[in-house]
Specification:
The structure is a single chain. By secondary structure, the chain is mainly beta. The protein contains 2 helices and 16 strands. The chain has a 4-stranded antiparallel beta sheet, with no helix packed on it.
Length: about 230
């Protein structure tokens, strides 16, 4: 009888213990994180580049209107950490990230999702296009080789400057080949002026102040110059 009573007490104790519950506070994350890294062609991080984060507003009054949320400077490893963000597609814009002393304009959308870290790495020179220039003679329309070509940021170009002065502020320079052709890979969405000159006398031929290319696009241009 005692053994049965003991067993009954044990069963009651087990039943009571099974009914006990533990309250646990569970916090559900409603945000994501974003880190953004800028590199050169070799994968080295670009430090001290300002990166701006924009949110896009789509309302009855505004369509595709970007609102600046915050800015960050990349650290010594080229990383900008924007921390917690609401899930959304954000526009990131860099302020003249430089590779080989040439400034590139990077603009891209990055998606942030709930409960995840978005680690985006971008090679800034990917934001480039191709400019192909062919130089011909006014006299007979034949291609001209060894014509000097200088690609200058439009905000640094002065039509009254000498060839030597323009070379100092140029992003790119070179000479035409036997076919009168020269090709440059230049930053996209950036305004340039093109300056042509005689590589023997350094005398200028002409210039064009409206060059711009889109990312991954090619612009073919032909010009004629008069040679005495």
């Amino acid at each position: 009888m005692k053994s049965k009573l003991t067993l009954l007490i044990l069963l009651v104790a087990v039943f009571i213990s099974c009914k006990k519950t533990t309250n646990v506070d569970v916090k559900i994350s409603t945000s994501g994180k974003l880190t953004y890294k800028l590199t050169d062609d070799a994968g080295k991080g670009l430090a001290n580049v300002k990166v701006s984060l924009f949110d896009r507003m789509d309302t009855y009054y505004y369509s595709n209107y970007n609102i600046l949320l915050e800015t960050r400077l990349t650290d010594q490893n080229g990383l900008a950490d924007f921390g917690d963000l609401n899930p959304n597609s954000y526009l990131l814009v860099t302020d003249s990230a430089k590779v080989n002393n040439v400034a590139y304009m990077v603009q891209e959308y990055v998606q942030v999702i709930t409960g995840a870290v978005k680690a985006k790495e971008t090679k800034v020179t990917d934001y480039s296009g191709t400019f192909a220039l062919t130089v011909r003679s006014y006299n007979n329309n034949q291609p001209l080789k060894n014509i000097g070509v200088i690609i200058i940021p439009s905000n640094k170009f002065n039509y009254a400057s000498t060839t030597a002065a323009n070379l100092k502020v140029a992003d790119f320079s070179g000479v035409t080949n036997d076919a009168g052709l020269i090709t440059f890979k230049i930053p996209s969405n950036k305004q340039y002026s093109v300056y042509l000159y005689n590589t023997v006398t350094n005398a200028s031929y002409n210039y064009n102040g409206s060059l711009s290319v889109q990312k991954d696009a090619t612009v073919n241009y032909s010009t004629n110059i008069y040679q005495q």
